[in-house]
Amino acid sequence: MSLKLRISDDIKTAMKAKDTQKLGVLRMLSAAIKQREVDERIELTDADVLSLVEKQIKLRKEAATQFELGGRLDSAEAEKQEAAILLAYLPQPLTVEEVSNLIAASLLEVVAQGPQDMGKVIACLKPKVSGRVDMSALSQQVKLALSRLSA
Predict the structure, then answer these.
(1) How would DSSP label each residue in 45-90?
(2) Using CA atoms, how far apart are residues 47 and 90, in angstroms rounded to an integer?
(3) 84 and 75 in contact (C-beta within 8 Å)?
(4) Measuring CA to CA, which residue among 94, 81, 79 is closest to residue 131?
(5) 26-63, pLDDT tens digit by residue?
(6) Is residue 125 within 8 Å of residue 143, measured between CB atoms?
(7) CB 60 within 8 A of CB 79
(8) Are 132 and 99 within 8 A, CB to CB?
(9) What pTM did the predictor assign?
(10) 71 contacts 14 by C-beta, under 8 angstroms
């Protein structure tokens, strides 16, 4: 079942269950998917939908942080709950060991020499880890591994 179809089915389920919060979040996600399809005149693949889900989660986490800084804890909590609903659509996250193994394999694959090869390594890793790891954390790990190579 495609991710887009799964979201559509979950919207129907949330309507039947009268789960207004989940329904609202999924409708916004569905609207974002349709907007991108209309804007770009394409049919989104699961990978495209996955990147949209990641973007929506990131937006909600940033909003929660801003609300906390502003002292609006109730709004921050609502944003965190929405992000939690969206997390269900991401694949299982990779373990630390799996990420380390993928980084080591990518370093060998692109024949990395040092920090100057950061872009090549990330480009090699991105399709393998999309949606399964925080990219900023991955970037830090790759940077550390590349600095060890040049030392």
Answers:
(1) PHHHHHHHHHHHHHHHHHHHHHHHHTT-HHHHHHHHHHHHHHHTTS
(2) 10
(3) no
(4) 94
(5) 999 999 999 999 999 999 998 889 889 989 999 999 99
(6) no
(7) yes
(8) no
(9) 0.76
(10) no
